[in-house]
Write a structure and sequence with these properties.
The protein has 799 residues and is mostly beta strands. Helix content is 8%, strand content 52%. It has a 22-stranded antiparallel β-barrel. Strands 11-16-17-14-15 form a five-stranded mixed β-sheet. β33 and β34 form a beta hairpin. The longest helix is centred in the N-terminal third of the chain and has 20 residues. The termini are far apart.
């Protein structure tokens, strides 16, 4: 038996030796061909058998045990052209093959995207994001940044109000649930947290990043459903000057009877932008002038109107803006830079609340429901940054943001925002991939306006103190983990103060080469603005009423997504798919109804109220790509689809009382909705599709953009009740007309924009831009007409 056992062991050993001698090893290193950078996490897979292979380590090295014979291996890495290795392996041989991969996704890779104040590539981030590059802004002759943001998947701009994934209804932009930042500084008004769209320098934008999902930890309470980060361009070694002039007009509406003007409906303006480095000083200056006849006219048509008896000329828009950035890099202290940014604007505009009627007055304002505004706004931002050799950064930014708005109803607004943020960051070299950011923020809003006398005084203030911290850890370019917390403190006038912590966490995992799986969960907390709590105003036949009992709203946002890189022939890019859910507590909605019987007319008006619990679930799909069609021909594409299901979770929750001409009843979602049958929240689009495609052939370029919004499923029942009342015989009020549009024309809207341009001698560019190409007449926000066709010619000179 012992002899048999010995023979068996000997045979097994000989067999193992034979098997071992049938194998060899393939090893080597993978680097980027253009930079020589070591590629961590590159995949080397056996063609026809992906179970055999390896992933490069932190030094870019790999080693694979391979059977003897002829083999073909495929080497791939995100943003690089795939390479193949053909080898003949001999038994016991160790074969070395070093590989250099060439980049191919120049448009999508290699761009540093600062998300949550960490520099990470778009594949590594743990939340959904859309990117808008400056070329499309220049090509579409954007005069207000909101118009280009409306083409981003998952983001709708409803009459100037940003809505991300249906996180808000319609509030005239007051109490924005989306944070707006220019170079990491918030740009919302002190009284109402309304975006200052006109103040954003469209002539100097390097990149726009749209974060979808709660971003409250690092972006503050306004980022309840997302944030928009606008990055301005910095000087390069070569000075750059760009001058742009443009002119055009609105065309006659599709229904010619709706044309209200007798003069020429012009739009004209100019931009100037210059940036340069002068020794250790970075200097940028920009300017803009816009003169816009406007597409909405005064009530006119013989309508009796003593409140807003404005002329056509008074409805025109005039904007003058000047901005500058100055940064000094210290000669004495390496890593130290400091400077000041500034922006100043005078803006003459109007605020139209409702149209006159559905016929000739579609593009006219309802009597009393329009305000003329003269706005003077500026900000000054001093800053100091220090970057040490060991990866530590100190940053202090401050701001004084002043706004003076004179309104035609004599309820003028003065607000000043004092803001400061200290930020500490560190990248830990001994733990490669680990970074930390923490800081404290101070904001004080000083507001003076009789419009906000619902508090008992026209003088109101809001104080916010917060501390935040977040860690971000990347392991071998395969796993990226982030987690953070923020503590908010709010104090408004003499009301009780509020303190609230919020948390978030996210994970991104490189599942396969070019395949990234992510998941995140985050809390949000938003304190009401001065306007939401204390606004009290009469505008013709409407009113806006205060609600001093309004309390903060909070949210919980979760999402799971996947980003997949692709390459089909010469077409490459990314497909992004995400499923999300947003849960809100004490949801703040802006509702129209009969609010208080103690008022003389108007009874009807708007009020901010807490409507209970709500939930928005949905799906985001976006595709960004680029195709090399020929030696000089390139196609760029951007496509996105967003579906939401916004529902109330407490349809019978009573949040106010309804004074319907002396009859007292309770206000709830069920009793205030035109269609409460499906519990769908008001003023939301369930489906939206956005697309842009551009063809560049040498110096010639053409593009077309497309937007689709499904119908609004639900709105306030009070609009219907007011229409019935104002159309009764003997009621001496201009009739309200909307419900016929809601029931017969509210079937979704498809809008196309077109552009074409030619570049001459690399400096001169002439463009033709047509917005609303097919001249659709449509409305997105109830009682608000959207723009008819607009035709523009643009000339730009780049030196």
């Amino acid at each position: 038996m012992k002899i048999l056992s010995f023979i068996s062991l000997l045979l097994i050993f000989c067999a193992l030796q034979t098997i071992a001698q049938d194998h060899g090893y393939l090893e080597g290193n993978v680097k980027a061909d253009d930079t020589g950078e070591t590629l961590i996490g590159a995949h080397i897979k056996l063609k026809g058998d992906i179970s055999t292979g390896a992933i490069t380590d932190i030094d870019g090295n790999y080693s694979i045990k391979v059977t003897k014979g002829h083999h073909v291996f495929v080497v791939s890495f995100t943003g690089m052209e795939t390479a193949t290795i053909e080898v003949d392996i001999k038994s016991g041989e160790i074969l070395t093959k070093n590989v250099k991969l060439k980049p191919y996704v120049n448009e999508l890779q290699g761009v540093e995207i600062k998300v949550g104040r960490f520099d990470r590539s778009i594949e590594e981030i743990t939340i959904s994001m859309e990117i808008i590059k400056p070329e499309i802004i220049q090509n579409k002759n954007v005069t207000n940044i909101a118009s280009i943001l409306d083409y981003a998947p998952g983001l709708n701009i409803l009459d100037g109000e940003p809505q991300i994934r249906g996180g808000s209804g319609f509030t005239f932009g007051v109490g924005s649930k989306v944070g707006i930042f220019v170079d990491d500084m918030p740009l919302l008004s002190g009284d109402a947290s309304r975006p200052y769209w006109d103040l954003i320098p469209t002539e100097n934008i390097d990149q726009i990043e749209i974060v979808k999902g709660c971003a409250s930890v690092l972006s503050g309470s306004n980022a309840l459903s997302g944030a928009i980060y606008i990055r301005t361009a910095r000087p390069t070694l070569e000075p750059l000057t760009r001058i742009k002039v443009f002119g055009g007009a609105y065309t006659v509406p599709k229904n010619k009877e709706m044309k209200w003007w007798s003069d020429f409906p012009y739009i004209t303006g100019a931009d100037y932008f210059h940036t340069r480095m002068i020794n250790n000083t970075d200097f940028t200056i920009g300017a803009n002038v816009l003169l816009d006849h406007g597409y909405i006219g005064p009530p006119g048509l013989g309508v009796e109107d003593t409140l807003t008896n404005f002329s056509d000329e008074q409805m025109t828009k005039k904007r003058y803006r000047l901005n500058f950035n100055i940064r000094q890099r210290s000669n004495r202290v390496k890593g130290l830079n400091y400077g000041v940014n500034g922006n100043i604007m005078y803006n003459q505009t109007n605020l139209v609340l409702a149209w006159l009627d559905l016929n000739e007055g579609f593009y006219r304002a309802y009597p009393g429901a329009v305000l003329l505004q003269d706005q003077f706004t500026f900000y000054v931002d001093p800053f100091v940054n220090f970057y040490s050799k060991i990866g530590i950064t100190h940053s202090f930014k401050a701001r004084v943001l002043y706004n003076n708005t004179d309104q035609s109803n004599d309820q003028n607004i003065r607000s000043t925002v004092y803001y400061g943020d200290y930020n500490f960051g560190r990248k830990y070299d001994f733990l490669k991939g680990l970074a930390f950011i923490g800081g404290i923020t101070f904001q004080y809003n000083d507001v003076n306006s009789t419009m906000y006398s619902g508090s008992g005084t026209p003088n109101n203030y809001l104080l916010n103190l917060s501390g935040y911290a977040e860690v971000d850890f990347n392991v071998f370019n395969v796993i990226n983990f982030s987690a953070g917390a923020r503590l908010e403190y709010y104090d408004m006038n003499d009301t009780p103060s509020e303190t609230k912590p919020v948390f978030r966490a996210g994970l991104s995992f490189k599942l396969l080469q070019e395949t990234y799986l992510r998941a995140s969960v985050g809390q949000g907390f938003r304190y009401p603005t001065v306007a939401e709590k204390f606004i009290q105003i009469d505008v013709g036949s409407f009113g806006v009423y205060n609600n001093s009992d309004l309390i903060p709203e909070s949210s919980l946002n979760t999402e799971i997504g996947v980003k997949q890189g692709f390459k089909f022939a010469n077409y490459f890019g990314y497909i992004d798919f995400a499923v999300f859910q947003q849960d809100y507590q004490n949801t703040i909605e802006y509702l129209f109804g009969l609010w208080d019987s103690t008022y003389t007319w108007p009874y009807y008006g708007f009020q901010f109220v807490n409507t209970g619990k709500s939930r928005v679930t949905g799906v985001d799909i976006s595709v960004t790509g680029k195709a090399q069609l020929g030696k000089k021909a390139v196609m760029k594409t951007m496509l996105g689809y967003n579906y939401i299901m916004p529902k109330t979770l407490e349809p019978d929750y009573v949040f106010a009382e309804d004074y319907s001409f002396g009859t007292n009843s309770e206000f709830s979602y069920t009793t205030t909705s035109v269609d409460p049958s499906k519990n769908i929240l008001k003023y939301r689009f369930l489906h939206s599709i956005k697309a842009d495609i551009e063809f560049d052939v040498g110096n010639f370029s053409t593009g077309i953009s497309f937007k689709y919004f499904s119908k609004i499923e639900n709105l306030d029942k009070a609009i219907e009740e007011l229409e019935i009342y104002t159309n009764k015989p003997g009621v001496n009020i201009q009739p309200i007309e909307y419900m016929d549009y809601f029931y017969n024309h509210n079937n979704g809207n498809v809008i196309f924009d077109f552009r074409i341009s030619q570049l001459f001698k690399e400096k001169h560019k002439v463009s033709l831009i047509i917005d609303n190409l097919f001249n659709q007449w449509y409305s997105l926000r109830p009682l608000k007409a959207e723009q008819m066709r607009k035709v523009m010619i643009q000339y730009s000179l780049t030196i």
